[in-house]
Amino acid sequence: MDYNLAALKLLCMHLKKAQQVISDSQSSFSLGGILFQRAWIQGILVSAVPSSSSTAPSETGCRFLLDDGTGIIELILSGDFRNRHWETGMYVMVVGGYFIQTGDVPMIKVHKIVDLSAFPDREASVVS
Predict the structure, then answer these.
(1) Which pTM was predicted?
(2) Superfamily of domain covering 8-115
(3) What is the pLDDT of residues 19-28, one digit of tens each?
């Protein structure tokens, strides 16, 4: 992961348009000429499903899905995030590595997740 590339604040509909770029054995994505590996997205946790239903089993035993109003993205939690209590209906901000799964919803391997449920009007204002 190249941390010199900023985490872009995006919507799911933007992530679907991102093109994969492979250079120097590192995979990154391009959107409108901007390279990125990490995405910043905000939305509602809509489900936590056992990983046996997922094509890419998560390390947590659960597949979390986030809806930002423009689409759905899968969240993979690791480390300390697995020990926290996440519920459907929570409004969260997520930053993490972006990955494309063939024939499935896009995925973010979470580096940071913050519960913003107490501040619902902190929603991202992104122009499409």
Answers:
(1) 0.77
(2) Nucleic acid-binding proteins (2.40.50.140)
(3) 888 777 677 8
